[in-house]
Write a structure and sequence with these properties.
- By secondary structure, the chain is of the alpha+beta class.
- Helices cover about 10% and strands about 25% of the residues.
- The model has no long low-confidence stretch (mean pLDDT about 90).
Length: about 90
């Protein structure tokens, strides 16, 4: 009998710089702290640009996408096998 594999749900987001208005809702509502607003990056229209900063903590919950009033965030969900199970 094969031991049950442990799977980890991960996420990656992309931020559409042309649509983002720098409101910061994505930063405020990401309870895992995956998105930051460093203050040194700007959209083409001059708004502050949030940054997807912590790939390891994101679980693709989608809250950032739901809270964005300008539909500037896409969330991609994928599943990784647990590192202990890879060998």
């Amino acid at each position: 009998m094969k031991p049950q594999e442990s799977k980890v749900i991960k996420g990656k987001i992309t931020i559409d710089e042309a649509s983002c208005r720098g409101c910061g809702f994505c930063v405020e509502f990401c309870y895992r702290g995956c998105i930051t607003m460093p203050g040194d990056r700007f959209t083409p229209l001059g708004y502050l640009l949030p940054v997807f900063a912590d790939l390891q903590r994101c679980n693709a919950c989608g809250i950032c996408n739901w809270m964005c009033p300008h539909f500037a965030i896409e969330v991609y969900k994928y599943v990784e096998r647990d590192a202990a199970e890879r060998d």
